[in-house]
Amino acid sequence: MRDAHRHEPVAGNPGGGTVLAAWERFVRGEDQVPGVRPVVAISWYRCRDQYRVDPHLREVPVAVAKPDPAPEHDVVFAELGFRAASVAHEVGNLGGVVTVTDATGRILAEWGDQATLARATDANLAPWFCWSECAAGTNGMGTALEAHGPVLIRGAEHWCQAFHDWFCEGVAVRDVVTREPIAVLNISCWRSQLPASAGSWLANAVTRTQRMLTRRARDSGAELVAAFSQARARSTAGLAALDNAGKVVIADETAGVLMGVPAATPAVDPTLRWRPGLPELIGAVRYASKQAARNPGWVGSTQIFTRLADEPTSITIRPVFTSGHLIGNLVSFGDADGAPVPRADGAAQPRPRPRRVVATRDNRMVLLRLPEVSFAESEGNDVWLSTDQGRLRAASAGLDKFDGELADAGFLRVHRRYVVNLSRVREVERGVKGELSLVMDDGGNTMVPVSRRNVPAVRRALDI
C-alpha cells in the first residue's frame, strides 16, 4: 500500500455539513437521511432502533465475549497479523493505525503511528476493547462485520459523536462455507482522509486469506466424502456427512429426503453446501462438534423431527477427524448409538418467522412484508429483490444469510443465485431433459431457473 504524500488533516465532517446535519436529525428521531450513503444509513438504523447505542457514548466497552475459535480461525488471525505488520511502517507514515479484530469486534492487535496510537487509546481503540456495532455504533470494524466488502466510514458517518474526528475503512474475512465473519482488518486515521490505495490493499489481503480458507474447505470436503463412502459401504442406514457448521456435504437418498437436500451429489465446489431445514439437527451437530473437540472418541445420539415423519427419528452422530483436526460429522438416520445429546429447550418449536424484509431505495429503507417479495437474486455480494414495489437491493448482503433467515417462512433456495417465495410461483416449465424453470408472479412473469441438484427439493416443496 503506497501513497504519494501524507494527507493533510481535514475536518471530521465529509459532505460540507450535510452528513452531520442528517446525523443530528436522525439522532432526534427523524428517518429521512438525504445525502447519506445507504451502507451508513442502514447502520444508523441498526444502531438507533435495534442496538440502541448511545450516540453520545465517549468510550467503547471492554470486550466481554471470548469466542472459541476453530483451528482455521487461528490461521486467519495469524495471516492478517502478518499482513498488518508488513504495512505498519507505511500506515504509520500516514499517521494511521491498522487493527485486527475477531468476529465479535474485539481488537486483537494494532500497529502504526505512535502518536495516533496514543490518541486512539483515549477512545479505547486498543486491544481487548469491543468495536462491534452493538457496542460502538457505526465504525469501520463493526460495520464491516455486518456488510460484505470494504466499508469506509468517514467523520460524522460514525454513529457516536466522540468518533467524528476519525476516518476508517475495514473489511471482514468470512468463512467461505457459512459466510459468517471470522475477523476484520481495518485502517484508521485521525482527522485525515485514508489513502486511495487503502481499500484495494484491504480487499487484496482478505482475498488472499480467503483463498487459503477455500483450499482448506476443499480438502476437508474431500475428506468428509471419503469418510461417507467408507461408512456407506458398512451400513444400510440413511447417512449424511455434515461439516462443523451443520451444512450437508453429501447425503444418500434416504438422508437427502429426510433433510430436504439433494442426494448423493457432492457439490462441484466444496464451498457450496446445503443447509438442512432441520434446526434440531444443526443444533445437535454443533453440540457434537464441541464434545468431539474435547474427546475424539465421542459418539452421540438423539431424536429429531424430519420433514416427512410425524414421529421423531433416531440419529447417531460420529465425528470425523483429519490430521488431528475435527472437520465434521457423519449422521446416520434410524440408528441410535453413543452418549445422549441433550435437546435444547423448545427445540421442537418453530423459530419465529420474520415479519418483514428490509430493502433500500436511494437513501431510504423500505420495509417489505414477506408476500410482497417474489424472489431474491444475488449479484456478487449484493442481493436484489423482485418486489411489488419494483427491484430493490436487500439491506442484508449475501444470499446465504437471506436464505437462512427465510427458510422457514415459505422461501426456498432453487439455484446458487436465486431464492424464491413459493407462494409467488405461478407456473412450472419443464425442459426436454427434465430441467425446471419457475414462472414467478411478479408482474413480468420472470422465469427463474432451478439448478439440477435442487429439482427434487422443488418438486417436494410444490408437490409436483
TrEMBL record:
Domain HTH LytTR-type: 357-464
One Pfam match: LytTR
Key words of the record: DNA-binding
Gene Ontology MF terms in the entry: DNA binding; phosphorelay response regulator activity
InterPro entries per the UniProt record, alphabetical: GAF-like_dom_sf, LytR-like, LytTR_DNA-bd_dom
Domain of life: Bacteria
SMART domains: LytTR
Hydrolase among keywords: no
Protein name as it appears in the record: LytTr DNA-binding domain-containing protein
Organism: Amycolatopsis thermoflava
